[in-house]
Design goal:
The chain is an all-alpha fold. The protein has five helices and no strands.
Length: 102
């Protein structure tokens, strides 16, 4: 199972690795035993968790910025000022303004 997961991860993240290199990695892993496989799988899972956390935090920050932009638009702050302060693209602020008005 862990070898399969490791190979799947390598294939999905690296497009510069050849089948021969992948076979060499698989051979080494199977020769060195289960402990190495477990360690590799744990590392891969940890990296995946870190990436997931980062993406989740980015989405949360973006959602908060959009909410704040909507509030500021309702208060009459100009889209240009909101874009500058929130670091959201002006086009996105204008889209939010349109949503509020319609």
């Amino acid at each position: 199972y862990y070898i399969s997961e490791a190979i799947t991860y390598i294939i999905s993240t690296r497009d510069d690795i050849s089948e021969t290199e992948l076979q060499t990695i698989a051979d080494q892993v199977s020769k060195e035993g289960g402990e190495l496989i477990m360690t590799l799988a744990e590392r891969l899972m940890e990296k995946g968790m870190e990436k997931g956390m980062e993406k989740g935090m980015e989405k949360g920050e973006l959602r908060k910025a959009r909410e704040m932009a909507k509030k500021l638009l309702k208060m009459g702050v100009s889209p240009e000022q909101i874009a500058e302060a929130s670091e959201l693209p002006l086009q996105e602020i204008l889209k939010l303004k349109n949503e509020i008005e319609n």
